[in-house]
Amino acid sequence: MPINVFEEMRKGAAYDIRQEDYVEQVHSELNRCASLCQEINATDVNDSIVDLPKGNTEIVAEFIQKAVGADLFEVETEKSYAIDYTQCTIEAKEELRNNDRPELVKMLDSVAEYDNIVVAGPCWWGTYPVAVFTQLEALDFSGKKVFPVMTHEGSGIAGAPAALKKYCHGAVVGEGLAIQGGAATGSEAKVAAWAKKNLA
Length: 200
Ligand SMILES: Cc1cc2nc3c(=O)[nH]c(=O)nc-3n(C[C@H](O)[C@H](O)[C@H](O)COP(=O)(O)O)c2cc1C
Fold this sequence. Notes:
The chain is of the alpha/beta class. The protein has a single domain, classed as Rossmann fold (3-Layer(aba) Sandwich), CATH 3.40.50. The protein contains seven helices and four strands. It has helices at 2-11, 19-44, 56-68, 85-98, 130-137, 160-167, 188-199, and strands at 116-122, 145-152, 172-173, 177-180. Strands 1, 2, 3 and 4 form a four-stranded parallel sheet that branches. Strand 2, helix 6 (160-167) and strand 3 (172-173) form a beta-alpha-beta unit. The longest helix is centred in the N-terminal third of the chain and has 26 residues, at 19-44. Flavin mononucleotide (FMN) is lined by residues 23, 26, 30, 55-57, 88-89, 92, 122-126, 151-155, 181. Flavin mononucleotide binds at residues 23, 26, 30, 55-57, 88-89, 92, 122-126, 151-155, 181.
């Protein structure tokens, strides 16, 4: 199972190597899995690749909402990313290298009415997709507490806490939560326990 491979990479041989090498290994494994998924989908659904109805991060965000009550805001880019997994990772890596700030479909202008803000996102090359930074940099987090939540396929919470320290100006960064993407649908109890401890 891919999950076990990622776990082995995290705990075993890859443990001592540089983070960048580790992320490369995660991607090579994800690419292998994506190819396998494409083969399976091609067999199962008449040669067409199906989109998942809901992303892993959205599943986790909704568990948080269900546990403690929360407004949800989705960061959505004007541009679209490649559907092909490998191509998408190439685009994302390029954006990260260039420190891009992609345009968003809509922006939140203020978080003044909230005390606690959870920034949930998929791990892209060890941090949030840079589009999340487009939104975070536009907000004033003075006096707020922000919580990093990351879904991933092996990197764990990775650079999420550091990113919030850097981009949420004025905020205190609280305890983070990492959920392995493939386990998102079964993570409700873990997510709810974290949410009740930190946000209730
Ligand atoms: C462009 C891209 C980069 C990714 N980089 C990483 C990574 O560095 N480490 C990791 O563990 N998973 C990585 N992943 C896997 C995603 O973080 C993981 O599948 C996540 O749960 C997807 O969430 P979503 O369904 O909300 O998009 C990457 C996926 C994509 C598409």
